[in-house]
Structures are given as structure tokens and as C-alpha cells.
Write a structure and sequence with these properties.
CATH architecture of the domain at 337-491: Orthogonal Bundle
Helix content: 40-55%
Distance between the termini: 67 Å
Number of strands: 28
CATH class of the domain at 337-491: Mainly Alpha
Shape: globular
CATH topology of the domain at 337-491: Isoleucyl-tRNA Synthetase, Domain 1
């Protein structure tokens, strides 16, 4: 076993819903790095997992009619299925609901409390429920969370606090003395200028307003707040506080990999927690950019989420992995589009790589009966030397780029060898050499060099596209020759033995009809959206959106004897128990805006006591957005969340319909506090 170790982590993902392609981006990058380090001789530990506690999970589970544990178990199973489909080679999958994690987190909390780094106090500040983040008044942007842009709410509660300011100076010194600690540099500047220099507030590390979390060991009324709980996974997964064999072997982490929106927690909170515990800090935290759609950052609320499973099933995991790693310079934001992915597929994978293998093996089969020929000795042509020298330079060139997490540049470098190999075919024209007997030896050299170049390319591809090299080896006839598949086999040109039986089979990447594929993907998305609408619209909302009757409208109809009958007379009665199941509360509308391309819909942000929800309502014909702000109305809050025009709706506003057909909201007196339950 190698004495060179490498520990890499993804963030632990929040299982409130299934993951999208943006989450896949982080995990594929981490996997490529882990595979590269293993390939180059390192003893690697690759950790991923899920952060399963918190108010948002508890609420989502309640809305789904499930226990929090049952709720997260189902989503985690889907996450593991996705990682399997993407060939993610993690060594451990940590869940914060596991006993191995919970016990140690409690011990950490207790230790920090006993040594005076945690104290009990009272907190008043602005809280963002979706982000599970507290903010000061100066950090809030026009009443919204500076990270996600959603409304925040003023929260006052008892809690336990960590003395962040105690370690702020020490952390700033560490950042300045270790320029690679936070990457890319723009993230480092942001952390210093926006958080450290203005001064750190003490951090609330417990909550008493919900129960789905790890209990504070000496105070059962409080649960340990998400960041002290979640961030500790990087050491609890290694056995810290239990069997510390792995911990002593792999800690400190070589790199924590994540999207940029959670860099703050990993470069300020996490290092300070580690300082308080007397533990070494991770060597690097890298915050990459976002995958952005035309509508902006991918999010469920915008309805622009890309399901990676759809792309994997249609184009294969290697194709998606290649696109994610190649298209966008790591660290920068990049626009994801199906069209760009398909273009990259045709250009790089079908035309360049696939065509290189197909052309080469077709000629080996045609001119040498499928047997890899021997290169002729003697004079080396300039094109031979260029191809060989480029291939031999690749390992060191790609190592330099990968050590900087420059995945896109590494693949771009590799593709210079792919394209140079195709150019080598055109320069030497094997089909013309085959026409002259005196050129047969030269023909053998050319085809041998192409096969050897393909071997180099296949080994270099392993971290990024783990399935494709095996398919190349099979066609080259070296699928059982493991010594030709190792990194150290790239130190010397010419290890491929002549006489090996090669066989061209199916194309690696058949060329796609982009127009047809785009139409098919769009059709599939439309079908999915229609299905979701049919499943998720509540009957009352659906009627409202169609301009029909409200659930409480009194209308008339004829009974079986032709007698006019009011709707109140023909109401189907329910029991008091049935009514008790409906949770109706007073909500204050704090913002309202039209839903694009939906004439009847408004998107509302509604304050319900200590939380804010997004609710989509079909009332745009009757109320302007500005007239609604500040109104208090009644809302059904325990309906299953629904997706309406791509927007998540977490409840339903109650309204009546007048005899003239006008929808009128059920408003309440302004003195009634938001969140009050109707009974």
C-alpha cells in the first residue's frame, strides 16, 4: 500500500428532494480527482454523504405524511442510485443520522461547552429557513437572505452560542499564511472582506424550535444546530473519537470540494471548530461555480432543474461526466444546456475519439487481418516523433493541471493527443501506403503508433470516463493485460506488443442527430411537467386556475326531481376529526409577484409565525401584487407541497367566490398574529 495518502470530500448533501445535475457536478469532479490520485499511486479516501437533520427536513416530512427518518431514507436511496449510475467510487457514505456520527457530535459539543467555547444565551437575528442560516441586520439585503435571495424572518430564542470572535484573528492569520487554503482566490477575498474583517458574531449552535436533530447532551430541549452537526462529518466518518485509525491516517483532508454558496461555512465555521478542538485544518477548501441555466441558478423553485438520470439513461454516464468536467473551467460559473452537451458529444466524443478508434481498427483489420502490426525499425519520421513525444509528455502535464483541480484544462490537454492522432492519420494516409508493397513496413509503423496512442489515451481517460477505457481495451485486445492499463505504463512508448488480436466492434459514441435529440428531451420534460401538475395540483387550486368555482362557492343545481338545490344543501358532510386534520393558519403576505407566462398566478411569500413559505395562488385576475403585501389571510398549511409552473407551492390561500364570480380572499384583522391557528 502506498504511503502517499489523499483525503477528498464532497459536501454532504441535503436530502429534502432528489438531487439535480448541479449536485452531480461536484461529485463527478471529486470522483475524477479521487480516481486520478489512485491511478497515480496514492492511497485515497473519498467521502460523500448526506446532512439529514434540521427544520426543513422535519417540515418536508410532515407535509409528506412521513416520519423524518422514513422521509430521508427514501431520498438517500435515490442519491445512492444516482452515484452508482455515475460510477462514483466513494470509499464511505456518511449519514448524520447514523449512531457513529451522532454520538461523537454530542461529545464534541459537550467538550466545547466544558472548555468555555460554547455558552448559553439569547439570540435575536434574521433567519433563512431554506439555507438554515442566521444573518445580522447589516448582512440582510432588503429583507432577503444574501445567499438565496428569499425572505428572512426575525427570530428571537434561547440557544447555545459558539465564541467565534475568540478564534477570528488566528483564522485570518492562517488564511494569510496559507494562500492555497481557500480556492479560487476570489472566494478567499470574499471571506476576508465580507466576514472576517467586519468582525465575526458569535454563532448560534443549537435550536429549540424543532426536534429533528441531535439532542444537546445536557439539555434535551435543544438540538445541535446544523453546521456544528453537519461539518463534523469529515472527522466522524474517519472514526474521530472512536477508533481513530483512519483519522490518524488521512486527516487533515487534502481538499474539501463544494459549490461556492457554502464556502463560508467551510472556511470560517469549520476551521474555527477545529481550532477549538486542537485539530489540524484541512489543506484546502475549493468552492467551484454554479451550473447555470438560462433562467439562472438551478433550483426547484425556478423549475429549471435537470435530472441527471434522464441524461445518463439516454447518453451514458461517461458522456455526462465528460461534459460536466470539460465544458466549464472549474471554479467559474458555467451555463448548462442540452444543446451544448450534444454538440460536445458529437464533436469530441463521436468525431474525435470515436472516429480515431474506428478508423484505426478498421485499417488494422483491413490491412493486417485484425492483428496489431510490428513497427519497423530504422528511420523515425517527424510525425512519429511528434506523436510519441506528445504522448509521453501527457502524464506530467495532466498531473500539473489536476493538482490545481483544473479538470477542463486537463481534458483539453488530453484532447490535443486525440486530435494529433487523427492528424497523424491524415498526414500518413495509410490507405495510400497500403497500395504499395514497399511501404508495407511503413504502414505497419503508422498503425502500430496509432494503437499505442490509443492505449495512452485510454489510460489517461480513466479518471474522467471510467467505462470508456475498458471498451477501448476490449477492441485493442488488451482488456486482460492490466500491466498496459497502469499509470506507470505511460513512462515508456512501445509497450504494446505486436501480434495482439484487435477487433473493431460497435462505435464508441454514435453520432447524434441534435435536432431530434433536443426535441425528444423537450418532449420528455413537457410530459414530466404535465404528470407532475396532474399529481400535485389540489382540486381547489386547479379549479381556481381554470377560472372555475372556489371550494366555498355557493351555487345552485337541480336535484333528481328537477327542484333547485343549493350547494350548501348537497354538501357531503365530514366528521370533526376530518376537519381537525386541516391546519388553517393566519399568514401575512410579505411579498407578491406575477408568475412569468401565467396570467392567473401570483407567487406569494407568506410569513406563518416563525417561518416563511412560498405559495402560488390563482388570484392575479382579482388582486395586484402590490395590493396584497401586508395583508393577513387564511392559509391551509398542511397540504402536500405542489409544483405549479415549476414553482414549489407550500400551502393554499383560502378564498370565496361572490355571486358575480369575483374571488375574495378570507382576510383577518391585522391584530391577529401571523401563524395563529384557526380552530
Amino acid at each position: 500500500m502506498s504511503n502517499k495518502t489523499f483525503y477528498i470530500t464532497t459536501p454532504i448533501y441535503y436530502p429534502s428532494d432528489k438531487l439535480h445535475v448541479g449536485h452531480s457536478y461536484t461529485t463527478v469532479a471529486a470522483d475524477a480527482m479521487a480516481r486520478f490520485k489512485r491511478l497515480t499511486g496514492y492511497d485515497v479516501w473519498f467521502l460523500t454523504g448526506t446532512d439529514e437533520h434540521g427544520q426543513k427536513i422535519q417540515r418536508s416530512a410532515e407535509n409528506a405524511g412521513k416520519s423524518p427518518q422514513h422521509f430521508v431514507d427514501e431520498i438517500v436511496a435515490g442519491i445512492k442510485d444516482l452515484w452508482s449510475a455515475l460510477d462514483i467510487s466513494y470509499d464511505d457514505f456518511i449519514r448524520t443520522t447514523e449512531p457513529r456520527h451522532k454520538q461523537v457530535v454530542q461529545e464534541i459539543f459537550d467538550r466545547l461547552y466544558r472548555q468555555g467555547d460554547i455558552y448559553r444565551g439569547r439570540y435575536e437575528g434574521w433567519y433563512c429557513t431554506p439555507c438554515e442560516s442566521f444573518w445580522t441586520a447589516r448582512q440582510v439585503v432588503e429583507g432577503n437572505c444574501p445567499d438565496c435571495g428569499r425572505p428572512v424572518e426575525l427570530v428571537t430564542e434561547e440557544g447555545y452560542f459558539f465564541r467565534m470572535s475568540k478564534y477570528a484573528g488566528r483564522l485570518l492569520e492562517h488564511i494569510n499564511n496559507n494562500p492555497d487554503f481557500i480556492q479560487p482566490p476570489s472566494r478567499k477575498n470574499e471571506m476576508i472582506n465580507n466576514f472576517l474583517r467586519p468582525g465575526l458574531e458569535d454563532l448560534c449552535v443549537s435550536r429549540a424550535t424543532f426536534k429533528w436533530g441531535i439532542p444537546v447532551p445536557f439539555d434535551s430541549e435543544h438540538v445541535i444546530y446544523v453546521w456544528l452537526d453537519a461539518l463534523s462529518n469529515y472527522i466522524t466518518a474517519l472514526g474521530y473519537g472512536r477508533d481513530e485509525t483512519l483519522f490518524h491516517k488521512y486527516w487533515p483532508a487534502d481538499v474539501h470540494l463544494m459549490a461556492k454558496e457554502i464556502v463560508r461555512f467551510h472556511t470560517i465555521y469549520w476551521p474555527i471548530f477545529l481550532m477549538a478542538l486542537g485539530l489540524p485544518l484541512p489543506k484546502q477548501v475549493f468552492g467551484h461555480g454554479w451550473l447555470i441555466m438560462k433562467e439562472g441558478k438551478m433550483s426547484k423553485s425556478k423549475g429549471n432543474v435537470i435530472d441527471p438520470m434522464v441524461l445518463i439513461e439516454r447518453y451514458g454516464s461517461d458522456s455526462l461526466r465528460y461534459y460536466l468536467l470539460r465544458e466549464i473551467p472549474f471554479g467559474a460559473d458555467g451555463v448548462f444546456s442540452n444543446e451544448a452537451m450534444l454538440q460536445r458529444f458529437n464533436t469530441d466524443l463521436a468525431n474525435d475519439l470515436g472516429n480515431l478508434l474506428s478508423r484505426t481498427l478498421t485499417m488494422v483489420e483491413r490491412f493486417f487481418g485484425g492483428t496489431i502490426p510490428a513497427p519497423a525499425g530504422g528511420e523515425e519520421f517527424p510525425s512519429d516523433r511528434e506523436l510519441r513525444e506528445l504522448a509521453l509528455s501527457m502524464p506530467s502535464r495532466m498531473t500539473q493541471l489536476m493538482d490545481k483541480l483544473q479538470f477542463s484544462s486537463a481534458l483539453e490537454a488530453l484532447w490535443t493527443l486525440v486530435r494529433r492522432s487523427n492528424k497523424y492519420i491524415d498526414e500518413n494516409a495509410p490507405w495510400l501506403l497500403a497500395k504499395k508493397e514497399q511501404e508495407r513496413k511503413r504502414l505497419g509503423t503508422v498503425l502500430y503508433n496509432l494503437c499505442e496512442a490509443l492505449r495512452f489515451i485510454s489510460v489517461l481517460l480513466l479518471p474522467y470516463m471510467p467505462r470508456t477505457p475498458m471498451r477501448i481495451w476490449s477492441q485493442l485486445g488488451i482488456d486482460t493485460m492490466t500491466h498496459l492499463q497502469r499509470w506507470d505504463s505511460l513512462e515508456k512508448w512501445g509497450l504494446l506488443k505486436p501480434g495482439i488480436k484487435a477487433q473493431r466492434t460497435a462505435d464508441l459514441f454514435p453520432r447524434l442527430d441534435i435536432e431530434k435529440e433536443l426535441a425528444s428531451l423537450l418532449e420528455g420534460k413537457d410530459d414530466l411537467e404535465k404528470k407532475e401538475k396532474a399529481q400535485e395540483f389540489s382540486a381547489g387550486e386547479l379549479d381556481s386556475f381554470k377560472g372555475g368555482k372556489s371550494a366555498v362557492k355557493e351555487s345552485s343545481s337541480l336535484d333528481t326531481n328537477g327542484k333547485e338545490q343549493s350547494s350548501m344543501e348537497k354538501t357531503e358532510y365530514i366528521s370533526i376529526e376530518d376537519f381537525a386534520r386541516v391546519d388553517i393558519r393566519v399568514g401575512e403576505i410579505i411579498s407578491a409577484e406575477p408568475v412569468p407566462k401565467a396570467d392567473r398566478l401570483l407567487k406569494l411569500e407568506v410569513k406563518l409565525g416563525d417561518e416563511v413559505r412560498q405559495i402560488v395562488a390563482g388570484i392575479a385576475q382579482y388582486y395586484s401584487p402590490e395590493s396584497l403585501v401586508g395583508k393577513k389571510a387564511l392559509f391551509a398549511v398542511n397540504l402536500k407541497p405542489a409544483k405549479i409552473r415549476g414553482l414549489l407551492s407550500e400551502g393554499m390561500i383560502l378564498a370565496a367566490t361572490s355571486p358575480e364570480g369575483k374571488v375574495v380572499l378570507t382576510t383577518v384583522d391585522s391584530d391577529v398574529p401571523a401563524g395563529s391557528k384557526i380552530s
